[in-house]
């Protein structure tokens, strides 16, 4: 007699078990099977709906705008989207998470607000060098984020090549990943200046100012640095197909290189969506032409995409509405709709839904060294479970009580799957309409391997 039993089509990283079931005991998955199910005190029979692992969103910015979103809202959107763990970025407005004390403070504050589980990235202040990396690893950082482009000298600084190599050497000793924002600083600044001189200020300006070559040049530096230092090198977002080929070439050479496709690079394109939305579709790196989107899908189908994320940030609309494209803030929300977007695209392209389980759960858990409790539908893992039912509907953020902003680049998009429920460690946190989890439900999750230096 199990505590809880889910019935439906079970989507693992390798197969879809029609008429499958997942048994849960004490908040953890105890068995996964197909056919005649065992008995349980509580049965969740979802018919022909999908039973999916709760998603792990590897790239969330809960505190990018002071007084705006914070964890109380980002994790609410996550629960509504079938996301049961978020990995939050370290570039908070006015608070760089670059020391163990800062990381512990953020963990305490997030723990009071979070409705789903959360992990925390760390980073460095350039003047400190890699000095604080070991202590941040001991404090529970899930990885370390750097940037080859300087968005802001204090809040989001550029890490120059020699310092980046020193940081990679230090991160390698922790066993964690070094994730890097991949744009070549010198090229982007030159192109921004050229676009400004040209007088182009509409939607075209952003793509022109950040060409594909700026990404791949930075990626070559990132992966070569990983190869030279023995560090696990991760590119946190790539908008061009060439970047995925670069990553795979390093993997074939035996290096631990990984790559992330944000959901916007898989569903939006420049000529239709950026042209229509302007600042609401401004993201770094930029959304590219449809040919690049299709190229990324080719790599996803071939297994060359490691994970899919949102790079979620809920800017106030005032920060996204300037007619001068380059003056808008960069980034978009997406936590509450990532699973429906990816499932819809996979279905329409006749690709296996197992990609969703792998890209949104199993692989992110491996990336962050969280597999002792997170990632996929397997015995021993936390019972983080998402139910998705087939339904045609149009996404409208203004009609949702679970997101802070009433705008989204995905507003009005027709989707084929809807989240019908989310469970965190065996407890329901979303019922298909309302987020049931209260602030403080979520826990701070940390990598199992690096308690210190290996």
Derived from helix and strand composition plus strand pairing, the structural class reads alpha/beta
The mean pLDDT is: 97
Secondary structure tally, helices: 13
Rg, alpha carbons: 21 Å
Helix content: 25-40%
**Uncertain segments:** 450-454
Q: Topology as H/E string?
A: EEEEEHEEEHEHEHEHHHEHEHHHEHHEEE
Write out the strand line-up for the largest beta sheet, numbering strands in chain order: 5-6-9-10-11-12-13-14
* Count of extended strands: 17
* Shape field: globular
Question: Approximately what portion of the residues adopt beta-strand conformation?
Answer: 15-25%
| Distance between the ends | 42 Å
What characterizes the major β-sheet? 8 strands, parallel
Description:
The structure is a single chain. 32% of the residues lie in helices and 24% in strands. It has 454 residues and is α/β, with parallel strands linked by helices. The protein has an eight-stranded parallel β-sheet. A seven-stranded mixed β-sheet has the order 3-2-1-4-15-16-17. The longest helix is centred in the middle third of the chain and has 18 residues, at 212-229. The radius of gyration is 21 Å and the shape is globular. Residues 450-454 have low confidence and may be disordered.
